[in-house]
Amino acid sequence: MIYFMVTAGSSLSAQNAAQNQQAGPVKYATFHPEVGDFGCEYPDNWNVKSGGGQGGVQSWARFSSPDESATISVRGNMTGGALGGAGLAMIQGADSDEIEPPVVGIHRLMKIKLADDYPNYEEIGDYQLLETKMGDACQSVFTTKSLLGGTQRGYRVTLLTGRVQFNMICLCPDGQFDQLTPIFTQVINTIHEK
Q1: I want to staple 58 with a disulfide (CB 3.0 to 4.6 A). Which of 76, 106, 135, 144 is the partner?
Q2: Total H helices, total E strands in the chain
Q3: Contact 153, 174 (CB under 8 A)
């Protein structure tokens, strides 16, 4: 069992004040559906919805905090997997110091889609390359506006296996981002292809 300490940042809202009082160690459960392409760890008190993985529908999952203010969404995409496979084939034998992993190009393409899906989408800084249990991944920090107009911050992660591309969005109110980063990182570090 893995534990992280989570404490809320300062805020003027009563909701965040209540969360400050409930801070404590985070216990993790294992998400490992019978049908689907991936598994991971997630906070055991979070809500889980999932589907796909059969009948031509890609695997997906949504993990949400008990108050629904923070979410982690994962969705598979076969098209990205095919593009990544083609990119891997094209770089065989090339000088590795000059070539970006195929996940970088797909991560850039997905930025365009996210900018269409989220109001006032803006990435902060450059992407970061990660090595995960799925292989190469790209992670970007971004901000957007919530439906009620507040600022949200999160991670956008592109994971690429030889078969499937996975897009992960970790999102929460801006003032809770630092507090939730260990949880987001745990899910990112434990996601794996089944």
Answers
A1: 76
A2: 4, 12
A3: yes
pLDDT digits (tens, 9 = 90+) for 91-111: 455 555 667 888 998 999 899
**d(C-alpha 94, C-alpha 178), whole Å:** 39
Q: What is residue 191's three-state secondary structure? A: coil
Question: What six digits make up the tokens of 18?
Answer: 């209540």
Contact between residue 2 and residue 28 where contact means Cβ atoms under 8 Å apart: yes
Cβ proximity of 60 and 52 under 8 Å: yes
Reported as a single tens digit per residue, the pLDDT across 55-80 is 878 899 999 999 999 999 999 987 65
Indicate the Cα dihedral angle 25, 59, 171, 153, nearest 10°. Answer: 130
Cβ atoms of 48 and 62 closer than 8 Å: yes
What span, in angstroms and rounded, lies between the C-alpha atoms of 20 and 164?
Answer: 39
Question: pTM for the complete prediction?
Answer: 0.80
Task: Give the residue among 59, 91, 85, 73 at the shortest CA–CA distance from 157.
Answer: 73
Q: How far apart are the first and last CA of the chain?
A: 21
φ, ψ of residue 147 in degrees (nearest 5): -60, -30
